[in-house]
Every structure is written in C-alpha cells, then in structure tokens.
Amino acid sequence: MGKTPVTLTLNKAERAGFTDPGENLLNFLRRGLGDLSPKYGCGQGTCGACTVLIDGEPQLSCLVLAETVSGKTVNTTGGLADGAQLHALQTAFMDGFAAQCGYCTPGMLMAAKALLDRNPRPSRDEIAEAISGNLCRCTGYAPIIDAILAATGQQVQG
User: Fold this and answer.
1) Averaged over 43-56, what is the pLDDT?
2) Whether the Cβ atoms of residue 118 and residue 64 lie closer than 8 Å to each other
3) Where's the 2Fe-2S ferredoxin-type domain (predicted)?
4) Looking at residue 2, what is its pLDDT?
5) What mean pLDDT is reported for the chain?
6) Exposure of 125 in the CB half-sphere (CA atoms within 13 A)
7) pLDDT for position 158
8) One domain for residues 45 and 9
9) Which of the listed residues 46, 78, 110 is the one where a domain comes to its end?
C-alpha cells in the first residue's frame, strides 16, 4: 500500500502531505506537517492532550485517521494567536496560572475554544462539561475553569 495524499486547511493555511495507511491525525500533524502543538498523551483517546478542532468540532487527533481530514479545516493551538496577539484564552491561561506542567494545556485550550465558539458566556458547569474529556494531573481544574470564565469577561469567583 502506498502513501495517501492529504490536503487540508491547517490554522488558516492550505497544507498538503502524505500519510501512511492507518496513520492517525496526531502523528500526521506532528511528523508530516510540523505542528507540534497537539500533544501525545495516551494514544488511546482517554486523556485529551491531542484535542484539535476539525471543522470546528473538538476531536481527539490520536483517534482520527489522517486520510479522513482531506478537504477539512483543522485548528490547533498553533493557530490560536493572531500574529503576536494571543487569543483571549491563551492570555487568561497565563494570567490565571491555569497551566502548571502545561502538557494538557493545548487540549484544554482547544476544548475551551470549541465551547466558546458555540456559547460565548458558558456557566462553570458548562465549562466543566466541555473540558471533561481532558485530563489534568496538576491544577485540580479550578484555575482552568476560572481562566476560561475570565476569557469570556465573566466574573471569576473567589
């Protein structure tokens, strides 16, 4: 079996590459296209570190075959900032110390971005639900939820 061509929009730029049969999107993004922002956590879809947006929907890139995203739009944290201007979520995560080791941060940011794209003023419970597929071993989730609330301009309790 030969390599399969894949053409997609990655973080607002048309990109193309070749994938091996059965290669997951995470590996294709990291090795094939050089986007190191999605992290390899478990390779089994249980940790959320590899979360990306595919046509606006959060997906675990370790579970998506690379060949299935041809013609689609894929967004990673590598495309959140607008030039030197950080996205509000990135700023809120930094200001609120929502990243400790930082390994879960890319997946958390993308899950949060998908939520805010659907609902610009979510409640704490809605945020907790939206990031529930993303594991964090360091923060206890409170600073992450607070940062997401802060990015929306809502008052953070506490």
Assistant:
1) 97
2) no
3) 4-80
4) 87
5) 96
6) 0
7) 63
8) yes
9) 78
